[in-house]
């Protein structure tokens, strides 16, 4: 905190006009967050002039880091022509074409302004298409802030039975919302089968992030996803993949790596090139619920800034720059860092593990097997270690998420990775001495 006087002052100013000085819970850090002033490549600077390797990249969205030349040029080129119209533009067709080409499960796509909206439109499309009310979701998995997607996001041990209950995340969540969401344990085929056996004809769809970040960043098992598709389809329900984060795992996202074709896919983050974005895509037959050409659609959907040409052009440039070589580079960097972090934990005798895939990894300060939400629910000691880890890294010039998530970017080199590993090693050494 001593090296961040300007951030501290700004936070005090913010407190007067924003609750807790905050407009985004995820970026709050106790006692105050650093205020960013600029980004370039894989680094960010705060208002006090401190520089950091950015290992969170606006919560996984800035896959090229900052000021990627093609993305910057696309935005600058659009500005003199206007930024948002009450009419479609050619840019949305181009980005839709690119995404449809990369995702074999997606015939058609609709844009939105956030991942939250992408997930919301996917859930609503599943309901409109099937005429059923219920959604199945994984306990502890985060999908943005649509009420139905938030159920059982943060259940506490007091609520844990053998099987997850539908628990509210936000105070004030209506009972009806809880009634229409069934939470299930992750990677558990039998539990899914049981839920469908009991309520299959009321279920519109299963919502799953193939590598749910808040539920541990553990990949779904391929057999689990395969069984999910079979079980859901046998009951006339749909499978919705939330690839808002996991689309950064490969050319065709996680569904490409796992070779699964969901019925609907929610997207966001990287597809906007650093601008607000979300999307839902899927089979044409399902996406027809949005079609207004034959009168009022089953599912009307608007959005004043939806598919604005700045977001669309930035997204198109970012996605074009994301080549197969980019993914190979990110995979190599990620594997190198995961191995380095695990070695460092071992060297300092700390119970812990480094999980993830591709450009994403997460540190858990626990030695028991990490399998699902419950297994990563942090006790007090782990919470204190995570906090010390986050702050220790910040003090050594590495920005990560306060809950231990890291997301890499294409401009990062192996030399950068070594500097990051050194900061991680020093921080873990401190933690081993402290706890
Ligand atoms: N789904 C997942 C898996 C996410 O991680 C997020 C955001 N972190 C969302 C949906 C919501 O996206 P947004 O913040 O753009 O609304």
Automatic annotation (TrEMBL):
Task: Tell me its cofactors.
Answer: pyridoxal 5'-phosphate
InterPro entries, per database record: Aminotrans_3, PyrdxlP-dep_Trfase, PyrdxlP-dep_Trfase_major, PyrdxlP-dep_Trfase_small
Q: A single GO molecular function, which one?
A: pyridoxal phosphate binding
Entry's CDD domains? OAT_like
Instruction: List, alphabetically, the Pfam families matched.
Output: Aminotran_3 (PF00202)
Q: Which UniProt keywords apply?
A: Aminotransferase, Pyridoxal phosphate, Transferase
The record's Gene3D superfamilies line, in alphabetical order, gives: Aspartate Aminotransferase, domain 1, Type I PLP-dependent aspartate aminotransferase-like (Major domain)
Q: Which family does it belong to?
A: Belongs to the class-III pyridoxal-phosphate-dependent aminotransferase family.
The protein here is known as Class III aminotransferase
Please name the source species: Rhizobium loti
């Amino acid at each position: 905190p001593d090296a961040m006087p300007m951030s501290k002052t700004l936070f005090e100013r913010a407190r007067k006009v924003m609750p807790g000085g905050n407009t985004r819970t995820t970026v709050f850090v106790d006692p105050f967050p650093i205020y960013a002033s600029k980004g370039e490549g894989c680094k960010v600077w705060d208002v006090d002039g401190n520089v950091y390797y950015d290992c969170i990249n606006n919560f996984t969205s800035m896959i090229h880091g900052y000021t990627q030349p093609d993305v910057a040029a696309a935005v600058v080129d659009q500005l003199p022509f206007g930024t948002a119209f009450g009419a479609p533009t050619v840019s949305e067709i181009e980005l839709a074409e690119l995404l449809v080409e990369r995702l074999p499960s997606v015939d058609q796509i609709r844009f939105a302004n956030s991942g939250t909206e992408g997930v919301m439109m996917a859930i609503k499309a599943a309901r409109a298409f099937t005429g059923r009310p219920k959604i199945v979701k994984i306990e502890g998995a985060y999908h943005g802030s649509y009420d139905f997607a938030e159920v059982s996001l943060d259940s506490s041990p007091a609520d844990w039975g053998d099987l997850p209950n539908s628990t509210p995340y936000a105070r004030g969540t209506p009972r009806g919302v809880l009634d229409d969401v069934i939470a299930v344990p992750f990677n558990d085929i039998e539990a899914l089968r049981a839920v469908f056996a009991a309520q299959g004809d009321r279920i519109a769809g299963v919502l799953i992030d193939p590598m749910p970040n808040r539920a541990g960043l553990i990949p779904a098992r391929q057999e689990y996803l395969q069984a999910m598709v079979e079980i859901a389809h046998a009951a006339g329900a749909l499978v919705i993949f939330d690839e808002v984060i996991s689309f950064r795992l490969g050319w065709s996202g996680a569904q490409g790596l796992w070779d699964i074709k969901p019925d609907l896919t929610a997207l966001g983050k990287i597809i906007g090139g650093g601008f607000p974005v979300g999307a839902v895509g899927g089979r044409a037959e399902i996406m027809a619920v949005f079609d207004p050409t034959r009168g009022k659609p089953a599912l009307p959907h608007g959005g004043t800034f939806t598919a604005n040409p700045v977001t669309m052009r930035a997204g198109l440039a970012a996605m074009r720059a994301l080549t197969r070589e980019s993914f190979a580079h990110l995979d190599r960097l990620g594997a190198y860092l995961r191995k380095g972090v695990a070695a460092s934990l071992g060297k300092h005798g700390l119970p812990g593990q480094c999980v993830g895939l591709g450009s994403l990894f997460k540190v858990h300060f626990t030695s028991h097997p990490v399998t699902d939400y419950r297994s990563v629910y942090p006790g007090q000691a782990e919470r204190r270690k995570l906090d010390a880890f986050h702050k220790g890294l910040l003090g050594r010039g590495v920005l990560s998420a306060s809950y231990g998530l890291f997301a890499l970017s294409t401009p990062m080199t192996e030399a950068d990775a070594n500097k990051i590993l050194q900061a991680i090693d020093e921080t873990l050494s401190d933690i081993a001495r402290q706890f």
